[in-house]
Task: structure prediction
Amino acid sequence: QFRALVSISNPGGPHAQSTKHGVHRGMSSVTIPPPACMLRPLEAPFRYLFGPGPSNVPPRVLAAGGRPIIGHMHSEMFGIMNDIKKGIQYAFQTSNNMTLAMSGSGHTAMECALFNIVEPGESVLVAINGIWGERVAEISERMGAKVHTLVKTPGGHFTNAEIEQALAKHKPVLFFLTHGESSAGLVHPVDGVGDICHKYNCLLLVDSVASLGAAPLLMDQQNIDILYTGSQKALNAPPGTAPISFSERACHKMFNRKAKPVSYLLDMTHLSNYWGNDGKPERTYHHTGPVSGFFALRESLAILAETGLENSWKHHTEVAEYFWKGLEDLGLKLFIKDKDLRLPSVTTIAIPEGYNWKELLAYIMKHHRIEFTGGLGPSVGMLLRIGLMGYNCNKANAAMALAALEDALKQCRMSKA
Result:
C-alpha cells in the first residue's frame, strides 16, 4: 500500500528515487558544497571600541542577551517589554504612553517617525549640520514630502530665531533636529525649540542616538513630540534595538492619517498593539521581535536606572573634560570650539596638519587594538572621532586613548593628507 501511494503521488519530485524502504531524495540536487569558512569556528577579535559607536558592551548586558530564548508572544516576553517601556520613559524623562523599542537600529526609529507622521505632499523642515539631517531630508523626499532645509557646515548650530523664521516661512508639519550630531561632535541646544514648533502647529522630532544618557535631555519638559535613540551608544546594549516615544500631539497626527504609512513593518497602528500601548486587551502577532536584543536592552536600561540619569550626565561630562584637556596637551585642536556645544560622548578633533588621517587610524588599530574613526558624510576629511560612552566612559580608557594618539603622532610618517 505504501509503495502504491508513492508510485501515484511521487512526493519526492523528479529527483526522488523509490525503494522498497520508501523514498529518498537524490543527492544530485545539491550542487553547492558546504563553504569551508562555515566549517571553521566563529572568530571575532577583541577591540577597544572608542569610535562613535557601537561601544563595548558590559558583561552584565552580554549575559542578559545570552539567556535562553522565549517566544516573542509569551506573557513573560510582554512583561519584559513592559519593563523596557518604563525604562525608556525614565531615560527620555517622559510620561508618554506611546513609548516602545523598534526592532532595528536607530535608523529604523528615524524612518518609523517619518513614515508614520508625514504624508505625501506635506511640508517638512530639516536642520542639516551633519549626516543625520541629510538622511532625514532624503527619506522625506523619497516619501514625497515637500522638504525644506536649514543648512550649516558640520559643527554649526541653529539659533531659535533662525528656526522660528524658517517655521513661519515654510509652515511644516514636522521639524527635525539632531541633538547629538555624532558626525561633528556637536550637542545641539533644544530649550525653547519645542515651544516655537507648537506656536506654528508643528511637531518636533529629535534624534538622540549619540547623546541619550550622556547629555541632558528632557522630552516632556522640552516639549519634544517624537524622540528616538539607539541601543549601541551610551546605553551600551548591542546594536539592533531603538527606543522611541510619541507625544499625544504626535499620536493625534499619526492616527488620523488619510492614507496608511508606506511601511507595514513600521506602521504604528500595529506596533502600538504589539507593545500593549493601544488599550486593547490582547496583543496580536505583527512581527517577531529581537528577543535577545530586548533582553540586552532591558538590562542596559536597568543599569542606567541604577546609575541615575543625572549621575550619568555628570560622569560623561567629567570624563570628556579630562579627555579634552589631554588632547589639548598633545597640541591637538578640538573641532567644536565652544565647550558647551561639545558632545560628551563623541569628541571630534581637527585632523593635525601634515598627517594622513587614515594612516593614523590604521596605526592605532594595528598597534593598540583601538578603534577611532574619521568623519562621516559632510565631515569626512575634516576630523577624527573618538567616543567614550557608557561602559567605556572612564578616565583609564581616556588615558589609553591619549597614549595611543601620542604614539601614532610620533610614529606615523608625516605626509600630505
Summary: The first helix runs from residue 2 to 9. Confidence is low (pLDDT under 50) at residues 1-10. Residues 129 and 154 are 5 Å apart (CA to CA). The two ends are 80 Å apart (CA to CA).
